[in-house]
């Protein structure tokens, strides 16, 4: 059964610790047979912890899961199937990120061949659709990150005040960089209003380090790795 190893930020430090203020491991249940768990993202919307993944090799269809107190269950308190619309032809759908900012559910993918350019979408209320540019800046640059940033492993969240972006340091499975959105520049900037580098502590040996998810639940900054 697929599952998530959960970490949380230790307040006042630069450390995310496995099991800190967390259920250490949470199952993912009820996933359709064609759920592509290699392409996934998470968010908290003020009420529910949510997990998303693509359907198979699709670039426009997501499955949605909700935390039911014991597992991330497919369709729990959720629209089970969501559709992405209006993205540019050069969108890279090999990975995506999501967040909720108190007003909108937002989804991000990147420009093919340019992992430092984000395409932003938002959920169209009352529908099953996330539309590129809806309630959103359609294109957002990411600037200033160190040259050894590993953009194949990235995450995003909103903490009630700031939109934040993260990526591992190339060659490291413990260190990751942080930036946030600078409204004056309309860009995500490395170290802006952020701890520049963060560290994972206590990572279980069964963790899949090829991708990660993050969210903020109005209390804690949380970090997730799927199990192998």
Give the topology, please.
Blueprint: E1 3-9, E2 15-18, E3 25-29, E4 35-44, E5 49-55, E6 61-67, E7 72-74, E8 81-85, E9 91-100, E10 105-111, E11 114-123, E12 129-132, E13 139-143, E14 149-158, E15 163-169, E16 175-182, E17 187-190, E18 197-201, E19 213-216, E20 221-226
Parallel strand pairs: 2-18, 3-7, 8-12, 13-17
Antiparallel strand pairs: 1-2, 1-3, 1-20, 4-5, 5-6, 6-7, 6-8, 9-10, 10-11, 11-12, 11-13, 14-15, 15-16, 16-17, 16-18, 19-20
Strand content: over 45%
**Domain tally:** 1
Spans with pLDDT under 50 lasting ≥5 residues?
none
Q: What's the tally of helices?
A: 0
Percent helix: under 10%
What's the end-to-end separation, in Å? 10 Å
Largest sheet: 12 strands, mixed, barrel
C-alpha Rg (nearest Å): 16 Å
The class by helix and strand makeup works out as: mainly beta
Notes on the protein architecture:
With 228 residues, the protein is mainly β. It has one domain (3-226). It has no helices and 20 strands. It has strands spanning 3-9, 15-18, 25-29, 35-44, 49-55, 61-67, 72-74, 81-85, 91-100, 105-111, 114-123, 129-132, 139-143, 149-158, 163-169, 175-182, 187-190, 197-201, 213-216, 221-226. The protein has a twelve-stranded mixed beta barrel with strand order 1-2-18-16-17-13-11-12-8-6-7-3. A hairpin with a 4-residue loop joins β19 (213-216) and β20 (221-226). The protein is globular, with a radius of gyration of 16 Å. The model has no long low-confidence stretch (mean pLDDT 98).
């Amino acid at each position: 059964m697929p599952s998530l190893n959960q970490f949380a930020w230790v307040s006042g430090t630069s450390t995310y610790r496995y099991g800190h203020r967390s259920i250490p491991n949470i199952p993912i249940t009820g996933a359709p047979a064609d759920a592509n768990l290699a392409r996934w993202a998470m968010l908290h919307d003020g009420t529910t912890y949510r997990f998303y993944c693509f359907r198979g090799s699709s670039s426009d269809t997501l499955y949605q899961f909700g935390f039911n107190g014991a597992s991330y269950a497919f369709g729990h308190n959720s629209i089970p199937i969501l559709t992405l619309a209006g993205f540019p032809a050069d969108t890279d759908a090999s990975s995506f990120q999501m967040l909720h900012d108190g007003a909108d559910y937002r989804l991000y993918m990147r420009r093919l061949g340019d992992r430092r350019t984000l395409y932003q979408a938002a959920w169209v209320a009352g529908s099953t659709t996330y539309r590129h540019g809806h309630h959103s800046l359609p294109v957002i640059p990411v600037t200033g990150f160190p040259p050894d940033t590993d953009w194949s492993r990235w995450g995003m969240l909103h903490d009630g005040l700031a939109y934040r972006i993260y990526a591992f340091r190339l060659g490291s499975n413990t260190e990751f960089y942080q930036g946030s959105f600078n409204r004056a520049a309309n860009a995500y900037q490395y170290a802006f209003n952020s701890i520049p580098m963060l560290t994972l502590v206590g990572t279980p040996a069964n963790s899949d380090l090829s991708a990660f998810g993050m969210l903020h639940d109005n209390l804690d900054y949380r970090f997730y790795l799927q199990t192998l």
